[in-house]
């Protein structure tokens, strides 16, 4: 079985619809066909300030949501990144084969740091992509299911893996991005020119899966569309409507052309009402299942302990090989 690895940040508590459609939904499908490793990336979360109690709570909330979404600890390895110390250890080595200029070209860092200002931007945020490189290479992952925003970080991963292999001998599998075109970028409901994002979306622009379903329905009904009236998929000319069609199509399994036909002659209100209904039917049981997992922290922690043990077995082997190749003296 080919191996997949992916992660999600425990920031903000609730996952948003972009996280689910762009990433987590694929994770659930891939556990059937792949040797799957999925983690909650708390080391990545602290690249921006976090309240300790909230981070701890949000980490459990993230795990509970992954289970509620359909991850099965019998069929995948589910763990918390900081439980596997090899991530930080390999990240250091990879930092030392990354060019400063190369890291400086990462657009996500440029965007996020520009918003924060240099005095509030941490060095951790700068090396975030290199930690992600280590996350992936530790597991010798063949594929990495992510949203479109991670494509550049995947390119960096491939470059660094190849560089290390050339310099020190074959050590890492060169991974491929696994990006599902249709859902790779879910857009902000109020500004369909930007991606829906935990850190950049306004409350009205983002659909949080754990939000009150009534509030979610309201947000969909006030989503930005355009002054035209035709319900048609056109990413350039009609980004708002296209985003709603993408979401509806993915959640119902009905393809976009057939949706376009069924809304012929209808108004935007009809599309929004239907989508609001579909969303409410999706998030309501999701919320309940998440809460059930949260109500049983012992089971949750047991799942995570087993996951970390399985992950460490793989990670330790890769780290040992890396240390050996690079010339570190073995500890006797
Ligand atoms: P932040 O804005 O803090 O970076 P985020 O919203 O990007 O948060 P992450 O935890 O960084 O959330 O991302 C988890 C996964 O969700 C990644 O694979 C990412 O590519 C994917 N993802 C995030 N936003 C979207 C989106 N709008 N559409 C599709 N996929 C997305
Ligand atoms: Mg992100």
TrEMBL record:
Instruction: Quote the subcellular location field of this record.
Output: Cytoplasm
Keywords, sorted A to Z: Aminoacyl-tRNA synthetase, ATP-binding, Cytoplasm, Ligase, Nucleotide-binding, Protein biosynthesis
Please list the reactions this protein catalyses: tRNA(Trp) + L-tryptophan + ATP = L-tryptophyl-tRNA(Trp) + AMP + diphosphate + H(+)
Read off the NCBIfam families from this record.
Answer: trpS (TIGR00233)
Predominant cellular place of this UniProt entry's protein: cytoplasm
Read off the PROSITE patterns from this record: AA_TRNA_LIGASE_I (PS00178)
Family membership = Belongs to the class-I aminoacyl-tRNA synthetase family.
What's the Enzyme Commission number for this chain?
A: 6.1.1.2
Q: Where is this motif: 'KMSKS' region?
A: 195-199
* Gene Ontology molecular-function annotations: ligase activity
- What's one Pfam family here? tRNA-synt_1b
- Residues recorded as binding L-tryptophan, renumbered to this chain, are 135
Q: What is this protein called?
A: Tryptophan--tRNA ligase
Listed InterPro entries? aa-tRNA-synth_I_CS, aa-tRNA-synth_Ic, Rossmann-like_a/b/a_fold, Trp-tRNA-ligase, Trp-tRNA-ligase_bac-type, Trp-tRNA_synthetase
Instruction: Give the protein's function.
Output: Catalyzes the attachment of tryptophan to tRNA(Trp).
* Chain positions recorded as ATP binding sites: 9-11, 18-19, 147-149, 186, 195-199
Q: Quaternary form?
A: Homodimer.
């Amino acid at each position: 079985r080919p191996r997949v690895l992916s992660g999600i940040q425990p920031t903000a508590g609730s996952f948003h619809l972009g996280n689910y459609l762009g990433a987590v939904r694929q994770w659930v499908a891939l556990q059937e066909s792949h040797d799957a490793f999925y983690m909650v990336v708390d080391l990545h979360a602290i690249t921006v300030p976090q309240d300790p109690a909230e981070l701890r709570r949000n980490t459990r909330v993230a795990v509970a949501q992954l289970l509620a979404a359909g991850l099965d600890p019998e069929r995948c390895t589910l763990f918390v990144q900081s439980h596997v110390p090899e991530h930080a250890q390999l990240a250091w080595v990879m930092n030392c084969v990354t060019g400063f200029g190369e890291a400086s070209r990462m657009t996500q860092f440029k965007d996020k740091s520009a918003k924060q200002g240099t005095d509030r931007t941490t060095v951790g945020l700068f090396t975030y992509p290199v930690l992600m490189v280590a996350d992936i290479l530790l597991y010798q992952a063949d594929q990495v299911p992510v949203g479109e925003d991670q494509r550049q970080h995947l390119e960096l991963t491939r470059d660094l893996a190849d560089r290390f292999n050339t310099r020190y001998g074959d050590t890492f599998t060169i991974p491929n991005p696994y990006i599902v075109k249709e859902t790779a970028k879910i857009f902000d409901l109020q500004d369909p020119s930007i991606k829906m994002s935990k850190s950049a979306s306004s409350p009205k622009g983002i659909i949080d899966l754990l939000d009150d379903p009534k509030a979610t329905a309201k947000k969909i009904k006030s989503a930005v569309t355009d002054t035209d009236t035709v319900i048609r998929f056109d990413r350039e000319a009609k980004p708002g409507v296209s985003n709603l069609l993408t979401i509806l199509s993915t959640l119902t399994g009905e393809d976009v052309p057939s949706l376009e036909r069924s809304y012929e002659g209808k108004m935007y209100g009809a599309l929004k009402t239907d989508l609001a209904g579909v969303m409410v039917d999706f998030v309501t049981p999701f919320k309940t299942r998440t809460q059930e997992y949260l109500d049983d922290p012992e089971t949750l922690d047991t799942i995570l302990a087993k996951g970390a043990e399985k992950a460490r077995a793989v990670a330790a082997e890769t780290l040992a090989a890396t240390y050996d190749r690079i010339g570190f003296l073995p500890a006797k």
